[in-house]
């Protein structure tokens, strides 16, 4: 049996790090915005999104 080892190039490591940082930033931003937004604004945003995606809601 042959063991296959894989090494990551510095460019690939940089891309992965960039993707993780972007995802973390977006996630924290969503939590921050939704945590401080009024409930009515969140409800209206979800309601408008359902209409724009053609989902029936009432």
TrEMBL record:
InterPro entries: CbtB_put. Keywords: Membrane, Transmembrane, Transmembrane helix. This is CbtB-domain containing protein. It comes from Methylobacterium ajmalii. The chain crosses the membrane at residues 20-42. It holds the Pfam family CbtB. The keyword Transmembrane helix applies.
